[in-house]
Amino acid sequence: MSATLNSVPGGKRISVYVTATLAFVLFALMAFDTKVISLAELEGEVGFSPQQFAQETFPEIQAYVEKNAVDASVLAPEVLQDAGAAGEKYGVAASIGHIVPVSLSGVAVESQGGTYTLDVADVPSDIAIRVQTGPAINGTTLRDTTGNIQFGDFTNQIEYQDVGAALNDEMKRQVLADISGQDLTGKTLEVVGSFTMINPKNWLITPVSIAIIE
Fold it and tell me: Which candidate among 6, 131, 164, 213 keeps its CA 20 to 30 Å from the CA of 105?
């Protein structure tokens, strides 16, 4: 076809037009067959990331706990008098009891699997106070402490549970990395964190900050 067209006047020009037309048709067919994926669709295909959620959300949780933490010496007598009232006053309702943000300074006197029992001044001795320092951080206290992270925010129970574990891991990365592996026995710790008040005489604190004083 090209040779015939080129043999007559204007044949070359017609050949260019034909080539351009064919290219346009081919491009149109390719565009018709191409699916445009929005950013939202792409994120949905990639899937939900508990780690990214935790990285973005932990600083907000940390700020909330630090702002709302009540001193242990103030909290303890109120808890012993009426745990339910103290929990409602200072914390948020959980599936069992309340989650309460607390601050304290105490001496680490004993460790069991990275969980230290603390001797805290001005807190009655019949209240046991412990703080988790890893490597294992148990529970969903961080996830639930603000009351703002709800099951309905996620696709299913697996995502909801994964977020709790990811927040614990993010806390370890941001808060516990500098003290990981250290023997804290005998050292004075300043702790800010939250605990679930199931047993008012047994506080297991998940920290959002820990400082070694001595």
Answer: 164
CA dihedral 16, 18, 24, 25 (to 10 degrees): -160
Cα–Cα distance measured from residue 146 to residue 165, given in angstroms and rounded to the nearest whole number: 16
pTM: 0.78
User: Side-chain half-sphere of 26: how many Cα atoms within 13 Å?
Assistant: 6
* Cα Rg of the chain (Å, integer): 30
The tokens for 166 are: 């990811």
CATH for 49-212 is: 2.40.50.420
Amino acid in position 5: L
Give phi and psi for 205, each to the nearest 5. -90, 130
Domain ranges of the chain: 2-32, 49-212
Q: pLDDT tens for residues 108-124?
A: 999 999 999 999 999 99
- Beta strand pairing status for 70-71 and 98-112? parallel
